[in-house]
Design goal:
Blueprint lengths: L1 E3 L2 E4 L2 E4 L4 E4 L8 E4 L5 H19 L5 H9 L2 H14 L4 H18 L9 H10 L4 H20 L29 H10 L4 H10 L3 H5 L6 E2 L6 E4 L10 E4 L2 H11 L16 H11 L15 H12 L4 H8 L4 H7 L8 H6 L13 H7 L27 H21 L18
Antiparallel strand pairs: 1-4, 2-3, 4-5, 6-7, 7-8
Length: 438
């Protein structure tokens, strides 16, 4: 397949169309099929022709029919979104995920003015995103939700292609509105001292790295305090990764949780009174004298406990693979770049490990110190002085062959200095290939 601009003769002159057309041939065809693309840009024409060929090949294989496509195009887009929501729930996607994705899709559809499938286009979304007041990270969330919905429609045969597939994400680096930091040891001590009944929750969050919802869904049967090695057995149903995990429990956390476990049924909630709200944590931080936002604009919240947990392990020198396992991360970049507070790392100790590259002393004494550092038994070159008291007559008393060799080296060195004078990158010295006359 290829695109071209139609050409013809008009009044004896060659006329070229300003619009692109395309030709393609499917499997089994004997003749080329020509279609008018009606676009002025070549890249758009190539993309449009590829979509047409993709659609025709699907129709040829019985994967798409005109009846199915026309039926989907006639239905309102809101009805397709309702089908998408029901399919997500039928596939056992978490209700938290569904409650975020579907409303985002509905907002994009309503505010972009899309009523039918044919109304969906990338330009409308880009204009809506540019006029919105939210940050780039939130804009990417809306883009991902809309892409997910349209990709589902493409898999179901309701649309040929995803119109938002080529829309680029917004740049988030350097534009974050919320930047978390880790708690310090002093801050944690003060917070635990004023939190009273919420102390086991804060302590467990800082020394286990569990998320807010995971802590809230823990049962007494998930905590194994028997024996010398207490364990925390996380069921797959409460984890973000939907995988079962058995993790060692810090002794300090085990002692704080023991009164909450003993004498209670295994199915009872570990924290029967519930989890502290955002306002409760803010009040505890104020009482402990911990600023919610520091001078650099970095904040602390409940999720900062998880960052504190990972940072403690990194500072202690724990192997990164072990940190990933206990933090339940799938990507090392997530552990290093997101959940580790780099300002808590001992950078000074790392820099102090660098070797000394300069000799002892500097200035006029540097050469003398360098000669003094040579071990006994090694000869040090001395400057040769001519009878007139000038240095440079080093060929005196040297055999003629060696003197001639040094003279040749001097000419080469002089040529190199001549070519490289005033240049930061010296040019290579070209050696004459003329055979020597013997």
């Amino acid at each position: 397949m290829h695109v071209f601009k139609p050409k013809r003769r008009k009044d004896g002159k060659r006329w070229v169309s300003e619009f692109w057309s395309g030709r393609y041939k499917l499997a089994g065809d004997t003749r080329w099929t020509t279609v008018a693309l009606r676009v002025r840009q070549k890249d758009v024409a190539e993309r449009k022709l590829a979509d047409i060929v993709h659609r025709e090949e699907r129709r040829q294989q019985g994967m798409l029919t005109d009846q199915a496509e026309s039926t989907a195009a006639a239905r309102p887009l809101a009805e397709h979104l309702d089908d998408f929501e029901r399919d997500l729930l039928a596939r056992n996607r978490s209700r938290t995920y569904v409650s975020k994705v579907v409303p985002r899709c509905r907002r994009v559809i309503d505010e972009c003015g899309w009523k039918r499938i044919g109304d969906v286009n990338a330009d409308a979304f880009i204009a809506w995103r540019a006029a919105a007041s939210f940050g780039p990270r939130t804009a990417n969330h809306y883009l991902e939700a809309a892409r997910c919905f349209l990709e589902w429609m493409a898999r179901c045969g309701r649309v040929t292609t995803n119109p938002l597939l080529r829309v680029q994400k917004a740049e988030t680096r350097g534009h974050e509105r919320v930047v978390r930091r880790a708690y310090t040891l002093d801050e944690l001590g003060r917070l635990l001292g004023v939190s009273a009944a919420r102390r086991p929750i804060y302590l467990g969050a800082a020394l286990t790295g569990l998320r807010y919802r995971e802590l809230g869904q823990l049962r007494c049967g998930d905590v194994d305090l028997a024996g010398a090695r207490p364990m925390l057995r996380l069921p797959a149903s409460i984890q973000k990764t939907r995988e079962y995990k058995a993790l060692p429990l810090a002794r300090e956390v085990a002692e704080a949780w023991r009164p909450l476990v003993e004498g209670r049924p295994a199915g009872a909630r570990l924290f029967a009174r519930g989890m502290p709200s955002h306002h409760t944590l803010k009040s505890d931080l104020e009482q402990a004298g911990i600023p919610k936002r520091d001078g650099r604009g970095r904040t602390v919240d409940f999720h900062s406990f998880r960052k504190t947990f990972t940072t403690f392990l990194q500072v202690a020198g724990v192997d990164r693979r072990v940190v990933m396992e206990v933090a339940r991360h799938k990507d090392a970049r997530l552990t290093d770049l997101v959940y580790t507070d780099a300002e808590r790392l001992d950078l000074r100790a790392a820099v102090d490990c660098l070797p000394m590259l300069t000799p002892a002393g500097s200035g006029a004494n540097a050469q003398e110190n360098a000669h003094a550092a040579v071990p006994d038994g090694h000869g040090v070159s001395l400057s040769v002085t001519s009878p007139s008291g000038e240095e440079g007559s080093e060929n005196r008393g040297i055999p003629r062959q060696k003197a001639r060799s040094r003279a040749t080296q001097g000419r080469v060195r002089h040529a190199s200095e001549k070519w490289s004078r005033g240049e930061s990158n010296p040019r290579p010295v070209t050696v004459s290939k003329t055979p020597l006359r013997v």
